[in-house]
Amino acid sequence: MTPMTPKLTLAIILLTWSTAAYAQESQPAQQLTPATTPGQAATTLALDPAGFAREAAAANAFEILSSEVALRRGQSPEVKAFAQTMINDHRRAQMDLQNAAKSDNVSLPEDLSMEQKQTLLALEQAEVSQFDSAYLSAQMKAHDQAIQLLGSYSVDGPPGGLKTYATAHYPALRTHMVRAQSLTSP
Questions:
Q1: Considering the domain boundaries, does residue 27 fall inside one?
Q2: One-character DSSP codes across 2-55
Q3: Confidence of residue 51 (pLDDT cuts 50, 70, 90)
Q4: Alpha helices of 45-160 — where are they, by DSSP H?
Q5: What residue stretches are annotated with the DUF4142 domain (predicted)?
Q6: Is pLDDT at 58 greater than 90 in this prediction?
Q7: Dist CA 11 CA 45 (whole Å)
Q8: Cα separation of 132 and 151, whole Å?
Q9: Domain total of the chain
């Protein structure tokens, strides 16, 4: 079997994300809700405090790291401004998450998933002319996942600092998604 080239890997990632992005584009902002009901999400997402903290920390770390790449490689001033907002907002969110985890006696690892690491690599290797589109697609996918995670935990998670964090940061994620979508629209 022939190994996949970085361009082919990026093309596969973009195709996967563009399908999800297209489906999201047809929904008005007020309809951006988790794809599953909270009860369904509980079976597919780690909703125990440690699992939630791990997933939320990785989501924030990915947003920060991918946006730092966008500041270096992005072409559009609007994309770079969006990236700076993501860095600022997700650094604050990560600090809030650390405090919430501490109040719930949960350790907070910041390891990225394999998928997140691969996406970062693909962004680093993306052709300059395709970077902004690839970055925005990655942002929409990451925010969709984070919206599902925080939405589910804010409903089904046990009371405590982490549930308060999920409830407080959920609206900002929806706003980020709408802004990313607006940057991809002509």
A1: no
A2: PPPPHHHHHHHHHHHHHHHHHHHHTS-GGG---SS-HHHHHHHS--SHHHHHHH
A3: very high
A4: 49-73, 77-103, 114-125, 128-156
A5: 50-183
A6: yes
A7: 27
A8: 28
A9: 1
CA–CA separation, 11 and 170 (whole Å): 30
Question: CATH code at 109?
Answer: 1.20.1260.10
138 near 31, Cβ under 8 Å?
no
What distance in Å separates the CA atoms of residue 118 and residue 162, rounded to the nearest whole number? 28
Gap between the Cα atoms of 54 and 43, Å rounded? 17
Q: How many CA atoms lie within 13 A of 9 on its CB side?
A: 16
Q: What pLDDT is stored for residue 102 in this prediction?
A: 96
pLDDT in tens, 106-153: 998 878 999 999 999 999 999 999 999 999 999 999 999 999 999 999
Q: How many angstroms from the chain centroid is the CA of residue 154? A: 17
Q: Which domain holds residue 97?
A: 48-184
Model pLDDT for residues 82-102, shown as the tens digit of each residue: 999 999 999 999 999 999 999
Indicate the pLDDT class of residue 26, thresholds 50, 70 and 90.
very low
